[in-house]
Amino acid sequence: MGCDVPVPARTASTTYPRGRTRTPSTNAADARALTQVLFEQIRTLEPGTPEHTRVRAALIEVNLPLVRYAAARFRSRNEPMEDVVQVGTIGLINAIDRFDPDRGVQFPTFAMPTVVGEIKRYFRDNVRTVHVPRRLHELWVQVSGAIEDLTVLHGRSPTTAEIAERLKLSEEEVLACLEAGRAYHATSLEAAQEGDGAPGLLDRLGYEDPALSGVEHRDLVRHLLVQLPERERRILLLRYFGNLTQSQISAELGVSQMHVSRLLSRSFARLRSANQLEA
């Protein structure tokens, strides 16, 4: 990576201000306590002084496990973990410089969003959208340089054969490198595609069915309805699926409208109770 972070070198036992030492076996509680002590010291020191620099470096080292913990969440991205840790350390340094102990927030709680945010920004801005083999990645650097040189030399974009001859590669290797180079750039969903009138990627995506949100509700209602007695279930179906009024239901079933109303109220109470138990 191009940005090196000044992280103190690890030793078997690192000496900290006021005679404190920390060994590799320091646990999280010890690290939090030491971090608090170091912040109390650094706030009394003038930035830029050797003592301030030393305490700041100690703060970075004692909190490096926090960076490694955050970086481990991105292990599946197939990027060198050293690079991810280094980027996360930049976020850690930014958090150290901005942290105010008087706010009553633990430093790990304050720092973690900054560390993770820095790592995510790195993947968003610098990492290839598709992972390519290391050999193609290295060849792409050469191909890219050859394209620039040949463009200046001929005053036009070079052909695949010209690039291959320049680098002593086969045309197939050059084409593979050019394809790998496209992995560095993501296309916007709203970008227009090549060709007149061709829709953008966003226009070719599926849309969300407005009735989809009701699927789960209908399944829940069906599950609850089967728990009701047959007559109460029939009344609910007539009322809310058949759109009949209570008077029409009373005529259909040969019972009073008042009785229909009582059965509906009782059914609702049972359904609410069953729903709470399901939840």
UniProtKB/TrEMBL annotation:
Residues 1-27 are annotated as: Disordered. Residues 11-27 have a biased composition (Polar residues). GO terms for biological process: DNA-templated transcription initiation. PROSITE patterns: SIGMA70_1 (PS00715). InterPro entries: RNA_pol_sigma-70_dom, RNA_pol_sigma-B/F/G, RNA_pol_sigma70, RNA_pol_sigma70_r2, RNA_pol_sigma70_r3, RNA_pol_sigma70_r4, RNA_pol_sigma_r2, RNA_pol_sigma_r3/r4-like. GO terms for molecular function: DNA binding; sigma factor activity. Coiled coil: none annotated. Keywords: DNA-binding, Sigma factor, Transcription, Transcription regulation. Residues 83-96 form the RNA polymerase sigma-70 domain. This is RNA polymerase sigma-F factor. It comes from Actinacidiphila bryophytorum.
